[in-house]
């Protein structure tokens, strides 16, 4: 019986997540884009999610991918690279996504499990203002009526915010 020998793949010259993030941010800034999310797995699978205030198309993703790949060295680094837009239904992770979606419909999932839908009216470092409809008792009326209310929601109460698109 021979001993089992395991070889660990050497990760020569692999860039750190911070170095890759810096490269992407330079590329994004040149093209009026912003970085939404970046993951780098231990196997060196790099996933980049970008956006802009005007949206991102496939051509833009391709351009960013080519520019980033040119900055990474295929000879010394073995990596898989994916560049995508943080499109419809992708959770908000950076302030620019809130800015992009001001006065648009969003779904807010709270830490307590409740969901709210409404128009994103404002955002700050502390939280968001959401204009929603809810049924309330109105003085002089027997039935509750649907009224618009603005809710201030702190980020510590929020699990996730996503945009809603109605066709």
Helix content: 10-25%
Largest sheet: 5 strands, antiparallel
Helix-strand sequence: HEEHEHEEEEE
Number of strands: 8
Structural class: alpha+beta
Instruction: Tell me the number of helical segments per DSSP (H or I, 4 or more residues long).
Output: 3
**Order of strands in the sheet with the most strands?**
7-6-5-4-8
Taking all Cα atoms into account, the compactness measure Rg is: 22 Å
Overall 3D form: elongated
Beta-sheet strand percentage? 35-45%
Low-confidence stretches: 1-12
Summed over residues and divided by their number, the pLDDT gives a mean of 88
Description:
By secondary structure, this protein is of the alpha+beta class. It is built from three helices and eight strands, in the order H-E-E-H-E-H-E-E-E-E-E. The strands form two sheets. It has a five-stranded antiparallel β-sheet with strand order 7-6-5-4-8. A three-stranded mixed β-sheet has the order 1-2-3. A hairpin with a 4-residue loop joins strand 1 (34-40) and strand 2. Helix 1 (17-30) packs across helix 2. The longest helix is centred in the N-terminal third of the chain and has 14 residues, at 17-30. The chain starts with 16 loop residues before the first helix and ends with a strand. Mean pLDDT is 88; it is low at 1-12.
